[in-house]
């Protein structure tokens, strides 16, 4: 999944949660939801594809693990207890939705790291981030890759509808 797929689907999940749980209404900071939706990739892609490309060779490492987000969640709860920074509470939830959207259960050695071992499996696509993008674009008619583009279009539509709704309320 790319940027808009993650953002759109995560925004939709939080919007639906806000509609179904009256306690959440008006308390969800959608800007932080969008940041949380991208945070695993914003952390792991630069680390695994650039800085540690020779050793890890993967864009799904630390921030694609449940243990990382449990630790981040605990830190955020401690921050929240001291400063009542409600806007931070959505970050771990949005990031865990990112893991679900990436189907991380298919790679349990990453999802449950370090409990299934200390190493991360290398991506099937060798090379840097540009190599990864070229592979995705050259295989866009593969059904698995096509789902990436379908989720991306769906995410763009969700973001556009959300932007129009927000703009109409602000006016």
UniProtKB/TrEMBL annotation:
Q: Does the keyword Hydrolase apply?
A: yes
Pfam families from the entry? YdjM (PF04307)
TM annotation in the entry = 61-80, 87-105, 144-167
Question: Mind listing the UniProt keywords for this protein, alphabetically?
Answer: Hydrolase, Membrane, Transmembrane, Transmembrane helix
Under Gene Ontology molecular function, one entry of this record is:
hydrolase activity
Do you know which InterPro entries this protein is assigned to? Answer: YdjM-like
- State the protein's name: LexA-binding, inner membrane-associated putative hydrolase
Species this protein is from: Methanohalophilus euhalobius
Q: Species lineage, top-down?
A: Archaea, Methanobacteriati, Methanobacteriota, Stenosarchaea group, Methanomicrobia
């Amino acid at each position: 999944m790319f940027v808009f797929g993650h953002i759109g689907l995560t925004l939709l999940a939080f919007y639906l949660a806000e509609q179904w749980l009256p306690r959440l209404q008006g308390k969800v900071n959608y800007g932080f939801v969008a940041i949380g939706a991208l945070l695993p990739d914003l952390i792991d892609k630069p680390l695994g594809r650039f800085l540690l490309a020779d050793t890890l060779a993967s864009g799904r490492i630390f921030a694609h693990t449940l243990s990382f987000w449990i630790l981040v969640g605990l830190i955020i709860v401690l921050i929240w207890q001291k400063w009542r920074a409600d806007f931070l509470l959505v970050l771990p939830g949005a990031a865990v939705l990112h893991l679900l959207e990436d189907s991380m259960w298919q790679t349990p050695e990453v999802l449950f790291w370090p409990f299934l071992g200390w190493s991360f499996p290398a991506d099937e696509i060798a090379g840097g981030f540009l190599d990864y993008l070229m592979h995705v674009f050259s295989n866009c008619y593969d059904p698995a890759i096509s789902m990436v583009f379908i989720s991306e279009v769906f995410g763009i539509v969700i973001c556009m509808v959300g932007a129009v709704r927000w703009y109409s309320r602000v006016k």
